[in-house]
Amino acid sequence: MGIREIGKSKTTMKGNAGEYLVCFDLTMQGYPAAMAQPGLSYDVIVDVNGTMEKIQVKSSSRMSMSIGSTWRYSFSLDKSHEDWHGGVIKKRPIGDCDYYAFVALDIRRVAYLPWEQMSKNGIPQSSIRFKSRGREYVGRSYDTGSKRQITWGKFFEDFTDFSKCLNKPNE
């Protein structure tokens, strides 16, 4: 275990695992990244063409399903964060970072979105959901026995390329 994990809750350790995965993923995509200091309003810093950008990391350990819904990864965007001793510090406002990284720990995938896409009609979203192309989503069943496949919504695999978040592709 690393220094950040000693004496931490499972939730904090999952968050740290997500941050490490984001740093690895970004570096492998050609964007040098490092974890930010604890207590800041962002989790990872990344070098984008010589500019340091801030990334807020949200992690989920597995898909879940609520009543009347489909299997998906759900991420809350407005939770408070904890300090080193487990005390709640503050709510993180939308726009306090440049990008969001959503981590599905069970499949070790990261989806990236710019913070500007985290609001609807100027109102910050409180959560975001992703489906995975690795799971079959069955919609309505018809009398003929055929079933409609669900193809709408955000799929994790469509947001894994960090350069698509940027105004210009990775050089």
Averaged pLDDT? 75
Strand content: 25-35%
The general outline is globular
Spans where pLDDT lies below 50 across 5 or more residues: 81-85
Question: What is the number of helical segments per DSSP (H or I, 4+ residues)?
Answer: 1
Helix/strand structural class = mainly beta
Strand order of the largest sheet: 1-2-3-7-8
Order of helices and strands: HEEEEEEEEEEEEE
Compute the CA-based radius of gyration: 17 Å
Number of strands: 13
Share of helix, binned? 10-25%
Distance between the termini: 35 Å
Q: Largest sheet, if any?
A: 5 strands, mixed
Explain briefly what this protein structure is.
The chain has 171 residues and is mainly beta. 11% of the residues lie in helices and 33% in strands. The chain has one helix at 10-28, and strands at 33-35, 44-48, 51-60, 73-76, 80-82, 88-91, 99-104, 109-114, 119-120, 123-124, 127-130, 138-141, 147-149.
List the topology elements:
Blueprint lengths: L9 H19 L4 E3 L8 E5 L2 E10 L12 E4 L3 E3 L5 E4 L7 E6 L4 E6 L4 E2 L2 E2 L2 E4 L7 E4 L5 E3 L22
Parallel strand pairs: 3-7
Antiparallel strand pairs: 1-2, 2-3, 4-11, 5-6, 7-8, 9-10, 12-13
